[in-house]
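Researcher: Here's the sequence for the chain we discussed earlier.
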Amino acid sequence: MLTIMPDLHENINDLDLLATKIKAWGNDLGFQKVSIVKPDLKNASHKLKIWLDQKYHGSMDWMEKHGEKRYVPEKLVERTVRVISLRMNYLSDNKMIAVLKDDNKAYISRYALGSDYHKIIRKKLSTLAKQIEKEIPTKNINQRAFVDSAPVLEKPIAAQGGLGWIGKNTLLIDDSDGSWFFLGEIYTSIPLPPDNKKTQNLCGKCNACLRVCPTNAFPEPYVLDAKKCISYQTIENKREIPIEIRPLMGNRVFGCDDCQIWCPWNRQPSQASEDIFKPKHNLDNESLLSLFNWSELEFNEKTLGSPIKRIGYERWLRNLAVGLGNAPGCPEILESLKERKKGSSPLLEEHISWAIDEQIRKLSS
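Model: Thanks. This is the structure I predict for it:
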């Protein structure tokens, strides 16, 4: 069996110093909080199993895969004994409610307005991992960074490290920063001193997130039925959006932030420190019709390096068609829908037809 860093393992002071440096390096890279966790995911894995048994994951089959790799870190990355958990704020505007209340505007989840966080945070984590390895180049260590890209139970890990508590909306919440942040992790074989200090759950009797959910996607507190979630329907679902959900979507065309917007802990949320998360192409305040009239070339150009690009042009138009169906009756919208319907795919045609019917109904009433 390989010996893990014998010198550092014997010298607690060296490990304490390294942990301090890692947190400072993380802060320098733009992470607001860094915690070192000795993961214990037994309870989280039990809750995951119950959630999967209820089929709340919908078509996200990957949630059922990987077995123990999801909750036994050393099965995912050999010799893992600690997880470095990091948080980065991403909110860059305060127009959320105003846009949601304007039925002609397109609401896009705030995390997707700027550059793709996967690439940005992964690059920063890679830099941090290299700094750690440079500090102890002669030691036999094993590390790997993750950003929402592998079977990692990131919220339970972050909660164990004191980066927040998992709220009734299933998001990680911090009493000073709210919940508008990304998470990233570095699995490491270095036996660093852990910061396991679970944050107190401060949701109390508040049910604001459950009450405001447009589709009633929470069957109970701390449990999300993804199939009813607008984020799932507009991003993960590759097929038809259920007809009963379409009117409830309103103008939400990529994701949904309602359970964050009305959370009391987000009344004064921390803003992003990185300009790369700032909205591009006026996506934080653009009209549904303007976005629907993008050509495929425009879509590809304007979503380059954006999380939006992953759904593709067809589903982008599908979502916008639903938004236009929910918009107030407007001859220009109706004409645009009819024009776009010509030669469209079966998936897109079905949603446009629904939107046309909705527009005709409104214009006739």
